[in-house]
Design brief:
Largest sheet: 8 strands, mixed
Strand content: 15-25%
CATH superfamily of the largest domain: Periplasmic binding protein-like II
Number of helices: 14
Shape: globular
Helix content: 25-40%
Structural class: alpha+beta
CATH class of the largest domain: Alpha Beta
Distance between the termini: 42 Å
């Protein structure tokens, strides 16, 4: 065939040869294109192992321990190093981690967890049911002084065997499953420390967990830890993490953190850059009314009028542009039932001055509203933090401009807790409350939680609200839950025990070559690391049969 083609090709004219060349060129290009398209049908992107993340964090770690990790810096490391029976996905769902599976009894009182047989700690000792029991009992024991004792109060825990743990409740509590993300401690390392000495244990800063990353080295500067270097744990149950190394550097403040990023020392952190994205926190900053302390605040019409005075959109855009999200009810915006109408009973078009005049209030010589010689007057109490002071000054300024004689009282964080919140010693409280996973609002609004250590700081009492809150803890289907939640919100909104203001947004910058999924709604910023084992910097394209 080749000889035949050559014999004829030599007799072709120049034009005929050009057509032959074009024909073969088209044939070649078509073949290559078809090959590429065919190849793409069978290729899939696969994460590639390797790479380093260098992240800056404000603060110095003290308690890298699930029992004590309250501060953000401690939570960050605890999330990376420890694993619980379950782990939360970026979408907010719970998946098995140390647990292989679990079952919930029909009456909702018994939770049975089966542990994976290949679960091990970073020191290559097995994770057993005894480790789970040890950790939960350590949280429950008051001598260990864990701030999370309340979460496990009244929960029974039993190791049926090395791989089976049983939790028993005294009454149904649907949000209980959220507690099982608690990191598990290795009993063989902690059992000889003594519960009263847990706060002083060396394992608080040299932790051994079973999570996606393990500590390989630390650096100290001026008697403080300046760096932790973590390596991926090859035997992590959800898969060896793709990112090989995470280097965490610690700074005293946000200015130092920003300077480190600008100088290329770190590649990620909670700072604003052109690549930052928002982490929205599941919390409610609000003005809480204590009607027992001020007679004016008992008047629902005055509370409604105060709602019309405070323009939350202006507050957020003025003080925290792009750093906060306006809240119209008592839960995060993303969790509001779709068919719920916000504050439907309040006519926000009513002018404050017209309202006050219609109720026979008049302005006195000082420019404040009064009636029968009684002037509307109250104080707003808050903590000495930059955020709360800014909001407090803004709100008091707006109210005073409209004839409300209000003063701002600022307390140190310790005094705020001990002298104001716990004894309920305030008229109006400016404060933020975190809404945990499971959306358990019982502690915030049930009448049984009016006094310390309950979180119902408005001392709000409503029997219908009590019923809805109790139902929420027992509802087993999403439809039932949403119905009870809507009824609860409508009831509270009509009575206005507080004015919800905003939730914070935390900027977070990651390397531009990093592939990751970060949750859009978090209770704590450390939850950005929930899916750290799936983060990767590079990708390979492989045929599916070789993946």
């Amino acid at each position: 065939m080749t000889s035949f083609f050559k014999d004829h090709y030599t007799h072709f004219s120049q034009t005929e040869r050009l057509f032959v060349h074009i024909f073969f060129l088209i044939l070649l290009v078509s073949g290559l294109t078809a090959g590429v398209l065919f190849n793409r049908q069978f290729l899939t992107d696969t994460p590639k192992t390797g790479g380093v993340i260098t992240e800056g964090i404000v603060g110095v770690p003290r308690f890298i321990n699930p029992l004590y990790a309250e501060r953000d810096v401690d939570r960050d490391l605890t999330t990376l190093i420890y694993s619980g029976l379950t782990r939360r996905t970026p979408q907010g769902n719970l998946i098995p981690d140390l647990a292989e599976s679990w079952e919930i009894s029909d009456d909702g009182l018994t939770y049975t967890f089966k542990l994976r047989e290949d679960a091990i700690f970073h020191d290559n000792t097995p994770v057993t049911a005894q480790d789970v029991v040890f950790t939960v009992e350590a949280v429950q024991e008051s001598s260990s002084k864990s701030p999370f004792e309340r979460d496990w109060d009244g929960t029974g825990v039993l190791a049926l065997n090395d791989s089976t743990v049983i939790f028993t409740l005294t009454k149904p509590f649907t949000p209980f499953i959220q507690n099982t993300t608690l990191g598990i401690l290795p009993k063989h390392l902690w059992q000889d420390e003594g519960q009263e000495n847990y706060l002083f244990s060396r394992y608080n800063t040299t932790p051994v967990g079973s999570g996606p990353y393990q500590v390989v080295s630390t650096k100290r500067s001026l008697e403080e830890t300046s760096q932790y270097v973590l390596k991926s744990f090859p035997k992590y149950l959800l898969g060896e993490p793709y990112i090989d190394t995470i280097s965490l550097l610690f700074y005293d403040n946000e200015k130092e953190l920003a300077r480190a990023y600008e100088n290329g020392v770190i590649s990620s952190g909670q700072l604003i850059t052109s690549r930052s994205s928002d982490l929205v926190l599941s919390e409610v900053f609000a003005l809480f009314f204590n009607q027992n302390k001020n007679a004016f605040l008992k008047d629902i019409e005055i509370r409604e009028a105060l709602v019309t005075l405070i323009d939350k959109e202006v507050l957020v855009s003025t003080l925290f542009p792009e750093k906060a999200e306006v809240l119209e009810t008592y839960i995060p915006t993303r969790l509001i039932p779709q068919d719920h109408e916000i504050f439907a009973e309040i006519d926000k078009e009513v002018l404050f001055e017209e309202y006050m005049g219609s109720k026979d209030w008049k302005k006195n010589q000082s420019g404040f509203w009064e009636k029968g010689g009684s002037e509307i007057k109250f104080s707003i109490s808050t903590a000495d933090t930059a955020l709360l002071i800014q909001v407090g000054q803004y709100v008091t300024g707006v109210l005073r401009e409209n004839g409300i004689n209000v003063t701002l009282e600022v307390y140190s964080p310790d005094d705020f807790q001990e002298q104001v919140i716990r004894p309920r010693n305030f008229e109006v409280l400016l404060f933020g409350q975190k809404i945990n996973h499971g959306l358990d609002l019982y502690g915030f609004w049930h009448s049984s939680q009016r006094n310390d250590p309950g979180l119902n700081i408005s001392q709000y009492t409503n029997l219908d609200v009590n019923i809805y809150l109790e139902r929420l803890r027992e509802e087993s289907t999403p439809e039932e839950y949403q119905k009870s939640l809507t009824s609860l919100l409508v009831e509270i909104e009509e009575e206005i025990p507080a004015i919800p203001l905003f939730a914070r947004k935390v900027p977070y910058t990651l390397p531009k070559d990093l592939y990751t999924t970060v949750p859009s709604l978090l209770v704590t910023t450390s939850e950005r690391f929930n899916a750290i084992y799936q983060w990767h910097k590079e990708k390979d394209s492989l045929w599916s049969i070789f993946k």
